[in-house]
Amino acid sequence: MNRKLINFLFLVPVLAVAQTQTGWKGKFEQLEQTLPTPNSYRSSSGAPGPSYWQNRADYVINVELNDQNQVITASETITYYNNAPEALTFLWLQLDQNILAKNSMSKITSSSRMMDSIPALYIAGAAKAYDYEGGYNILNVKDATGKVLPYIINNTMMRIDLPVPLKPNEKFIFSIDWTYTEYDRMKFNERGGYEFFPEDGNYLYTMCQWFPRMCVFDDYEGWQNKQFLGTGEFALVFGNYRVRITVPSDHIVGASGWLQNPKEVLTKEQIERFEKARKTFDQPVFIVTEEEARKKEKERSSRKSTWEFYAENVRDFAWTSSRKFIWDAMAVKAGDKTPLAQSLYPKEGNPLWSKESTRAIKNTLEVYSSRTFDYPYPTAYSVHTANQGMEYPMICFNYGRPKADGSYSQRLLEGMVGVIVHEVGHNFFPMIVNNDERQWTWMDEGLNTFLERETIRTRYEGFDVTDASPAGIAYFMRGDKTMMRPIMASADNQSRYHGPNGYTKPAAALTLLRETVMGPELFDKAFREYAQRWAFKHPRPADFFRTMEDASAVDLDWFWRGWFYTTDNVDVELDEVKWYRVKQPVIDPEKKNVKAQAGDLATKKNGKAVDFSNGPQEFTVTNTPDNFYGEFKNRINDNDIRAKLESKNIYELTLKNKGGLPSPVIIEWTFKDGSKEIERLPAEIWRTNEQEVKKAFIKEKEVVNVVIDPNSETADIEMNNNVFPKKTDDKFDQKKKN
User: Fold this and answer.
1) DSSP secondary-structure letter at 686?
2) How far apart are CA 684 and CA 687, in angstroms?
3) How far is Cα 716 from Cα 686, in angstroms, rounded to an integer?
4) Helical pair 520-533 and 541-550, crossing angle rounded to 10 deg
5) Sheet strands (E) in 119-265
6) For the stretch 486-524, what's the b/e string if a residue is b when 16 or more beta carbons lie within 10 angstroms of its beta carbon?
7) What is the dihedral angle through the alpha carbons of 412, 465, 442, 479, rounded to the nearest 10 degrees?
8) Residue 482 contacts residue 470 (beta carbons within 8 Å)
9) Are 562 and 571 within 8 A, CB to CB?
10) Where does residue 495 fall: left (phi above 0), alpha (psi -120 to 50 degrees), or beta otherwise?
11) 593-620: buried (b, 16+ CB within 10 Å) or exposed (e) per residue?
């Protein structure tokens, strides 16, 4: 296109052309060199490819809990299906309980330091003050015929050598017997364990990572057998579980899956209440009341009961057991299914838990289903446990304990509701959209924190949702970059920044993406597409990035690069605003142009205008030279153009990208009559110059104030440089007065 003509059409393209070759850093380059090459397993669109495969493991487990010495005794039979296009000569299993074994890698690689005074609880573990031997005691590993299989344990991983290679489309059946002593969570800050209640002498057990579990073998990296160091969570295989749990007969048990033998473990009255709850949608139904639970606290049954649960197509299995449990439940509508929301909690959780827990499950399942896919499982439990928030298929463990007199603050209420929504929400990410948590924390925690915020925002009016928003993450992004890691760094390498990088920063990024970059309609369609493509499969980051673009027609490579691969921040400075005006022209037939009267420049600091105090600068609009038209014979009417500009206000904004992260630019104009206007520029405004952009705007009314990002939508870390007229220091103000 003829550059002279482009230059004439409007002055802003002139500025863009002038900047084209300056400051290029590649922030708008495509990510194709960074992302893995698409193939028949994972397509270029972000969907599973035509040759996509994943392996599977089915479990039959028998476990008994000794409530006297807290020992777990168990056996499992695993049927492992090799759907890979290659043979396997060995299998890898996770032994996560070994994180508490003597000389575990987690213990010997964790940092520590001394201070002048240290609470005894914090140093007790290092001082070996507890008489506790952690880790699995593996008793037997055998094949289906009873033949012993050779194995070797490497910290939290166990390799089993196969007698013959396991070929594609074959299965291998083997069994493992084991025991271990469960731990006190008050002493060891881990995910499972038990809580002891000295007032009544009872225990509340949360059984997590309690059995040897298959590692993932996939098309992306083969075996995912990274050691469990505590922060990075789990990479797991889908399968079916049949689990028989033997406990004292006065215990109530909740678990991943649906109870198969209610008549053997529940009273007739409890069964009737349970069935009523399955048909009640408006409020929870008590299956075990607080009065009944208080009575049970005093019992010590010598009999045992075995609860049998079945879970289909899940990636893990967890359970809980206690005689202290109050139990309530209600039905939820999710598409054509009616899952049962269930809560288990001791009296110490009331009155808060009876009011809020089951309703929070309901809200979560409804909102998440509307944004992704209908919740497919038959139930979802929320279990009250001190100082915890942890998720498993169909069951999660959540904090939120009122004071002894039953009172609680708004902060505790919001924290308790938030953690329940978050942990129940994990049923969608990663329990169904099954990413590798060990490597990519943000793929479940970040996406889930985003949807947690959406649930709170839409269902809990007045609750604070700042934390996972662009405004809330600005403080973190303003921090010391020497210790920061990008979101894409693995969990165990994130130091103290694991929380923001895994949870709130990606959630804030997705909020920005939905509300400011893409818009809710496009974002919601693309996000739902990703969830449905990868339900019950194993997605990777590239699958998410590609799907979001594929389903929206929005080029987001600059966004993923800046927010996920760097530690850049958003800091857009409104460096200068110039005000121009053209009056009705007086044509000089000899010179064929108009010269506007010279106006006084606005008050300046360091040579730049800081306010509008001295009015606009008036500028010349010349008649168009003939050579600007090239070969065209037609001409525009220069006088008409000048007439259209009569009394218009033209404002040239100079914007600087001081933080390095490209960002949409949101401009709030305040006019002399008190009215306001919001104008939005996409991040592509920076595509030809990533450091500085000039852009002119024509306004009918006179502007008195300009603010960039007025509602803190973009995570801008420094709002003081977003305003014009400029804020000036006292020294400059005094100089101006003089």
Assistant:
1) G
2) 5
3) 16
4) 130
5) 137-143, 151-154, 157-166, 170-181, 193-197, 202-207, 213-214, 217-218, 222-223, 239-248, 252-255, 258-259
6) bbbbbbbebeebbebbbbbbbbbbbbbbbbbbbeeebbb
7) -100
8) no
9) no
10) left
11) ebebeeeeebbeeeeebbbbeeebbebe
> In the predicted model, is pLDDT for residue 457 greater than 60?
yes
Pick left, alpha or beta for residue 23 (phi over 0 → left; psi -120 to 50 → alpha; otherwise beta): left
pLDDT number for residue 58: 98
**Domain end: 237, 263, 297, which one?**
237
| CA distance linking residue 158 with residue 174, whole number of Å | 14
Decide the pairing of beta strands 239-248 and 56-65: parallel
Q: Whole-model pTM?
A: 0.92
Question: Is residue 104 a part of any domain in this protein?
Answer: yes
DSSP string covering 461-499, please? TT----TTSHHHHHHHHTS-TTS---TTS-GGG-GGGHH
- 71-93 burial code (b ≥16 CB/10 A, e <16): ebbbbbbbbbbbebeeebeebbb
* Segment (H or E) for 62: strand 56-65
In tens, the pLDDT along 115-168 reads 788 888 777 777 677 888 899 999 999 999 999 999 999 999 999 999 999 999
Give domain status of residue 191, yes or no: yes
Q: Does residue 631 sit within a domain?
A: yes
Query: Would you state the pLDDT for residue 588?
Result: 53
CA distance 703 to 701: 6
Instruction: Let me know how many helices (H) and strands (E) the chain has, helices first.
Output: 18, 33
CA distances, 640 to each of 585, 594, 635 (Å): 10, 13, 12
- Specify which residues 314 forms β-bridges with: 239
Percent of the residues in the chain that have a pLDDT greater than 90, as a whole number: 81
Least confident interval from 212-221, 554-563, 599-608, 726-735: 726-735
Q: Which pLDDT band holds residue 583 (cuts at 50, 70, 90)?
A: low
In a domain, 269, yes or no: no
For residue 698, the cross-strand partners are 650
Amino acid type, 417 = V
- Tell me which of 177, 203, 237 is where a domain ends: 237
Q: Which amino acid is at 584?
A: Q
Joined together, the tokens standing for residue 500 give 């923001």
Residue 170 tokens, joined: 């074959």
| Amino acid at site 162 | L
Report DSSP letters for 272-330, one per residue.
Answer: HHHHHHTT--SS-EEEE-HHHHHHHTT-----EEEEEEEEEEES---EEEESS-EEEEE
Q: How many other CB atoms sit within 10 Å of the CB of residue 244?
A: 16
Residue 333 near residue 362, CB atoms below 8 Å: no
| 598-612 pLDDT, tens digit each | 444 446 666 788 999
Q: Are 530 and 548 in contact (CB under 8 A)?
A: yes
Q: How many C-alpha atoms does 410 have within 13 Å on its Cβ side?
A: 5
Domain of 606?
570-737
Nearest 5 degrees, angle CA 77-CA 81-CA 87?
120
- pLDDT at residue number 695: 97
Return the CATH number at 133. 2.60.40
Distance CA 530, CA 521 (A): 15
Structural contact between residues 132 and 124, judged by C-beta atoms closer than 8 angstroms: no
Which of 579, 576, 586 minimizes the C-alpha distance to 621?
586
Phi, psi values for residue 286, rounded to 5°: -80, 125
Structural domain tally of the chain? 2
pLDDT digits (tens, 9 = 90+) for 298-357: 989 999 999 999 999 999 999 999 999 999 999 999 999 999 999 999 999 999 999 999
